[in-house]
Amino acid sequence: MDRTTAPYIQPIKTLNILPPTSHKLPNDGELFHLSAVEDEAVKIDLIFDAGSSKHQKLISRLTGELLFSGTPSQSSDQLHESIDHLGGFTNVEISDEEAVVSVLGLRENMIPLIKLVLDAIYAAQLETREVNQLIASKKQQFQIAMEKVSTLARREFLSHIFPDSSYGQLTHLVDFENIERDDLVAFHQTHYIKGLQKIAVVGNLNDQEIKHIIEATEKFDRKTVQPTSQAFNYIPEEIDVSKTGAVQSAIRIGRILFNKQHEDFIDFNVLNMILGGYFGSRLMTSIREEKGYTYGIGSGFAQLKDTGYFFISTEVGEQYKDATIAAVKTEVERLQNELVSQEELDLVRNYITGQLLKNADGPFAQMDRFLSVHKHGKDLSYYNEVLTALNRITPDRIRDLAQQYLNWDAFVIVKAG
Amino acid sequence: MIHFERFTLPNGLRVIFHKDITTPMAVVNTLYDIGARDEDPSRTGFAHLFEHLMFGGSVNIPNFDGPLQKAGGQNNAFTSNDMTNYYDIIPAENLETALWLESDRMLSLAFTEKSLEVQRSVVIEEFKQRYLNQPYGDMWLEFRPLAYEKHPYRWSTIGKDISHIEEATMAEVKDFFHRYYHPANAILCISGNFEFDYIKELVLKWYGDIPGRDVPKRALPQEPDQRAYKEKTIERDVPSDAFYLGFKMPGRNEPHYHAADLLSDILGRGKSSRLYKKLKKEKEIVSEINAYILGSFDTGLLMISGKTADGVSTEDIEPIIHEIIDELKTKPIEETELEKIVNKVKTTNVFSEQGILPKSIGLSMHELLGDANGINRETAKYEKITPQEIQEQAKQVLAKTNCSRLTIKATTNG
């Protein structure tokens, strides 16, 4: 048998992402529902306008973690007992732009569970004792995180590319001492009680059950999110952060760019993929697979509401620090000076298509895909635009984008170690 | 209920097929019955190093990742103390590309010096990144040899010592491959929207001619029953003190494994657990506390771990943990508390079966444990557990003489 010839590869032609049904909430927010779940699993995301860019970062993060700290009728212990008894799991994720409270459970318990969760969030007391306990453990976690070179590099990088914006604001140890409970209460009022924006339900629930969920949100208000028009200026520079005893250095290299709304976004993503977006990328091939300097290196393209930033990130042995930066520079410049081969471009094209298919596999993933475009005012047709753009993109276009956006002189370069 | 079909090739390869008509993707999961526990004590970290080498090209195909990516697929692998698992996720139309690649690296590797040299270096950087350059990162490197004296669980998958990786030779690599990487020592699980006959035909085509070899006999030194409390204190440059208590518990296939699992949930899973409520919320002496099990195939560990609150010493904490443990030994838990814990397990199990990748890995792992259908019996096993069995396990597992304790003392105050 001939094992040297690869089987024929079939092109992927279609991408079917089921759109969720949409329902109005009493506060004029929206509930999205995907019901195509085969078993009893239900996941409900409550999306609040309570991200960490809305206020001092720490205030937003602490408030998010205090949502289940007790109400006038239930202590924190009792509340968790009730959630657990319903087989429920909750998780609060605070990003720059929003707070997402996820509730996981089985269908049979979901309605009492979501009512319990909504009531707990609405009536959260933020008692002093609970606040102080949280501050004490968060302070410790902060100190632990500050021992990691990856944290040091990330902080330095963000504060340099966002010198004038809340995205670049850093938390310091002393901030934990200066937390006023009133600030947390005020944040809870404005950004939770008046901040319920969207609900995403994935699970085999019927119309009646959806109606129950909608009714349970009645008390929540919704202030329209104010559009901000920030300018994002930064100064490209090199920063060294020293950490005694580190055996590896963390490296971050990158710049401000743009977000999904920009006309070059989709094509730039292809360039990013070639450089550092997957296991076979140029950075992984050169710095891990050829030179063995690191366990992993990659590039990413972070999406914010008003902008986005591109970054390369890795942790390398102390002795490889400078050689790594030089090798990264070589790879970036190759993209600016040489055309990618048709073969590499085909590979990346197919890889991205396969990844799209995988990332839209199943109702839970499909809801994530929907929300990630909805956030930027787009609909699911966006994914077909990606497929079309992938078929159109040329090696020349990749080189042009690299020349336009990946100039070494435009990068902030941080080394921590 | 996860439906599947099973067959075995003449060369010994066990094959599981799971049909899922809802997905456009396919999964090819290959589990090899080789983990860090099978390593030579003077060559630890080898199973994991080998996992890296499996991506360095096979006998007929110079590069593993490229062709898979070109077919729209992606892959990864993990090594544990008990097994090594490789998976590919690929658009269903291109399933055959994954079978071509996986079968060729089961047949033989390229064994290039370059690949060995580079992956040694990559694994050393992984060692540094995950174990040395993180606060508390070397905890398992210290804890395993304290808890285990005879069993090879006394070292981590990364290995005891970097020098074991540095000194690995090509001859050892080849020998390792020959012994552990062949059809009779592997389980292949394919999932996706296919017909069973089609899968059979493809598996026969790509795997049928790979020679079968004898399955290596496993005769691991078993850990003797622990008869005395063990402790060790180390100092590290970390912000606060941390403590780790490990109690020997039944292995994955042994009676009472599931009861011991529930016992750890009662103690320390989530914010309504006994340890959390008492130590963190009521007494405010820890900043974090958890209990969990490792899920090992042989004699495992039920872990209780945490970090002390500022100004509290680890010595003050352990007596309170033992008070809570004693309560479990002397008094059967209420039915409502048991019901709560089982409800959480049910939710966890339903969510762990979302998507074809976790289903494929789960089926393969249960087949390794003896029967792939075990995945469908897990929840029922938890539902059968009684307060008496929990109490009995508390007495057995949570005996103080059955405990090993590691303390990491902070040398600085942040």
Which overall shape of chain B is indicated by the principal axes computed on the Cα atoms? globular
Residue ranges of chain A: pLDDT <50 for 5 or more in a row? Answer: none
What Rg of chain B do the Cα atoms give?
23 Å
Structural category of chain B: alpha+beta
What's the count of strands of chain A? 11
Characteristic key phrases:
heterodimer, A: 417 residues, alpha+beta, six-stranded mixed beta sheet, five-stranded mixed beta sheet, globular, B: 414 residues, 41% helix
Please describe the topology of this protein:
The complex is a heterodimer of chains A (417) and B (414).
Chain A (H helix, E strand, L loop, with lengths): L20 E4 L5 E5 L6 E8 L8 H9 L10 H10 L3 E6 L4 E8 H16 L5 H18 L3 H13 L19 H13 L2 E7 L4 H10 L21 E4 L6 E9 L8 H13 L4 H9 L3 E10 L4 E10 L3 H17 L4 H18 L3 H12 L6 H12 L2 H11 L6 E5 L1
Parallel strand pairs in A: 2-6, 7-11
Antiparallel strand pairs in A: 1-2, 3-5, 3-6, 4-5, 8-10, 8-11, 9-10
Helix pairs in contact in A: 1-6, 3-7, 8-14, 9-10, 10-14
Chain B lengths: L4 E4 L5 E6 L5 E8 L13 H8 L11 H6 L3 E6 L4 E8 L3 H13 L5 H20 L6 H9 L14 H5 L3 H11 L5 E7 L3 H12 L22 E7 L5 E8 L7 H12 L5 H9 L3 E8 L6 E9 L5 H17 L4 H17 L4 H14 L8 H6 L3 H11 L5 E8 L4
Parallel strand pairs in B: 2-6, 7-11
Antiparallel strand pairs in B: 1-2, 3-5, 3-6, 4-5, 8-10, 8-11, 9-10
Helix pairs in contact in B: 3-8, 9-15, 11-15
